[in-house]
């Protein structure tokens, strides 16, 4: 009986390999990259912003239905990079959880609590054989009452960290290198600088200039607190400002 | 635990009588960041490296050392997400004990119950063992105690122990430096020196975490300021 003792099953379900690795979790990370989308999140002094690519593969598709940017509540946003179906499932559960939290405890679910909930759920999939890990990296954003703008990233392994800036998807590492240089001295970006850093990071890493319809931008500002997806006109303004600056 | 389709254990005996999934779990622990614990005459200290994947990560959002009760703390080496699950289960068990007996749970009992959970995941259907080893530090009526719990669910009481990447060097260092009559302050210095032994890069208050519990029976994590003071004393 060789079930589960490393006779090849360590690649099919989340059990340990001889080197102590979980191959299914590592493959889930590869699945995130296979979506060919890159997303970037940046946290400023009083705003947090995420940018993601919007690839519409077929002209017949309804563009408005293609999105990776999801409001979880009025005050919490989530950008899901990876397999779209897994993303929708995760968003649906997150929305349910946030609504129940509000009902049960009488106040809005904080960002880090939502991030922890997503990460704990992901951990269960890495330990129980009956469900595979989700092929999604979720970046959660919100304004915390005490800590200000927050950006959390949750991955298929069940890790979650708060970030000053981060990236997920195909060009994740290149984007992180770019952002590390920009954020090295702990700059306190204003709202405009936050958005433009995020967009220019994406442009630099993908080495192309975007049209406003090719990216999605979501923002949360300390004075406003409501999660908003920017309209095409607003995105255009930022793109113009960036090209004039360079 | 044990889900319908997988009502058979994934951890099974090999022909030589070994439980290979547990061995692989221990390998996962051995490639985790170094952590250690030292029991002094009047308290316990636990410490760990805190190396984050990028400078973009907000280090204040991460706390590797956690408290299970006001007088028991825990640190791990291995997989962070698995650790969170164990912390949550242990806290619940401690609280259930308190509700039933109206007194804080003794350290040995909490360790035993946590270890039982870890053992269950090596035998139940459809689950894999936890990829963490825990160092539990507590102070109760029996005095200061330090326990190490492994993915198999076995636990032992230690005077000083280490886990993770640099375990053999760290243990050798601790064996030389440990004395039975150490004070808590000396133990903290020894802990820092032990971490420094195998540390890649410059040690600072931003890339290590230290938790202590003294005769006041209150477990707490040191602030970066306090760690800086100890680091200066060690220089």
Task: Give the key terms.
heterodimer, A: 246 residues, alpha+beta, five-stranded antiparallel beta sheet, globular, B: alpha+beta, 6 helices
> What is the terminal separation of chain B in angstroms?
50 Å
Assembly type of the chains comes to heterodimer
Largest interface summary: A-B, 42 and 45 residues
Order the strands across the largest sheet of chain A as they lie in space. 8-1-2-9-10
Overall, the morphology of chain A is: globular
Low-confidence stretches of chain A: 1-6
> For the terminal residues of chain A, how far apart are their CA atoms?
65 Å
pLDDT averaged residue by residue of chain B: 94
Bin the helical content of chain A: 25-40%
The strand order across the widest sheet of chain B is 8-1-2-9-10
The level of helicity of chain B is: 25-40%
Tell how many strands the DSSP assignment of chain A holds: 10
Overall shape of chain B: it is: globular
Task: Give a brief description.
The complex is a heterodimer of chains A (246) and B (235). With 246 residues, chain A is of the alpha+beta class.
